[in-house]
Amino acid sequence: MTFEPLAPLGGYITLSILLLGLVGYFFVKEIRTPGHDDASIVDWSRRLAITVLVIFIGFGPGRMVETTETARANVDVFFVVDRTGSMVAEDYDGDKPRLDGVRADINSLVSLLPGSRFGVISFDSSATQQLPLTTDTNALKIWSTNMNQEITLYSKGSTVNRARDEMARILADSKERFPQNQRLVFLMTDAENTTEDEVRKTFADLEPLVDGGAVLLYGTEAGGPMKQYDPYDLEPKYIEDHMAPGTPNAISKADLGEGKAIAAELGVGFFHLTEPTDLAPAVAGIDPEILSVEGGRIVEVFQLMIWPFAIGLAALLTWELSVVVARSARRVG
């Protein structure tokens, strides 16, 4: 079994430890309480099992399965996705979060580049490779669907600098291993920099590693408010600007100048996206060579295996709910 976490690993581990510790504390407290009954121990054992299953599912359990690759294009596509808090500013296509546009455009570009291999680099407080190059577009769609902004509590502001070094490493590795392939980079960001003491690094030295792509800049210069993100908060509040009088909602503004500058340094196109847009022009110059694999080639792809654990979780939750309802009925009666 292998794992592909559904959330940034560092923050998820921290939250998992805190949650497990909290439930474990109440479990131990119940055991040590004089005169406790067996029913209460069963209750907290069940809740502990629910917690463990939820945490385990969040780590993205799965397995590598073999599939036959019959043909592919000599194109490696890298989506570099900004997941800082500003990417949920509500100024895309009216008042929708910018990440809504990112999700839609990833799907659009996949359909425009059939047979390519796709990989994902995301950056927030750090940059990580979320998905190695693969022809498994279902894996990419699953990642895109489950993608969220970083957890607000751990945010360190916005800067594209965090993506640069990881991009350099992965692009250099791709060129060394597959020199015949074309490498397309789609940097999906608002280019906002809220770490004003940090000078933006140049992307110009990455230009020899890039054959095409675009900087896709989301949001407006007027900006929009952003909601906080906590996976356990069902009614998130807006992020506030504590430096402004009256503590109004913080406003994130897309930086067109920086976006254009990065595009020029990478030698790729620039698209300012404030609403759904046809991205065919972004790949107009790409002429992929289809590489047929005679007789098919066996490759391994990652397949999520959540459903067996989800069934167990559903059973435990049903049990918990039935106990709560039964006890409520007895109290009312």
Could you characterize what this model shows?
With 333 residues, this protein is of the alpha/beta class. It folds into 2 domains: 2-60 and 306-332; 68-293, von Willebrand factor, type A domain (Rossmann fold, 3-Layer(aba) Sandwich), CATH 3.40.50. 37% of the residues lie in helices and 25% in strands. It is built from 7 helices and 13 strands. The protein has helices at 9-32, 38-58, 98-112, 137-146, 161-177, 256-266, 307-332; strands at residues 2-3, 61-73, 75-82, 90-92, 96-97, 117-123, 127-134, 182-189, 212-218, 224-225, 251-252, 269-273, 290-304. The strands form 4 sheets. A 6-stranded mixed beta sheet has the order 7-6-3-8-9-12, sandwiched between helices. β4 and β5 form a beta hairpin. 29% of the residues are buried. Mean pLDDT is 88; it is low at 291-296.
Task: Summarize the topology.
Layout: E1 2-3, H1 9-32, H2 38-58, E2 61-73, E3 75-82, E4 90-92, E5 96-97, H3 98-112, E6 117-123, E7 127-134, H4 137-146, H5 161-177, E8 182-189, E9 212-218, E10 224-225, E11 251-252, H6 256-266, E12 269-273, E13 290-304, H7 307-332
Parallel strand pairs: 3-6, 3-8, 8-9, 9-12
Antiparallel strand pairs: 1-2, 2-13, 4-5, 6-7, 10-11
Helix pairs in contact: 1-2, 2-7, 3-4
Summarize the structure.
The chain is built from 7 helices and 13 strands. It has 333 residues and is an alpha/beta fold. InterPro entries: VWF_A (IPR002035), vWFA_dom_sf (IPR036465).
Number of helices: 7
User: Can you say what the CATH homologous superfamily of the largest domain is?
Assistant: von Willebrand factor, type A domain
CATH architecture of the largest domain: 3-Layer(aba) Sandwich
The total domain count is 2
Q: What would CATH call the class of the largest domain?
A: Alpha Beta
Briefly note the CATH topology name of the largest domain.
Rossmann fold
Fraction of residues in β-strands: 15-25%
Rg of Cα set: 23 Å
Could you state the order of secondary-structure elements as H and E?
EHHEEEEHEEHHEEEEHEEH
What is the arithmetic mean of pLDDT?
88
Distance from N terminus to C terminus (CA atoms, Å) equals 49 Å
Strands in their spatial order, largest beta sheet: 7-6-3-8-9-12
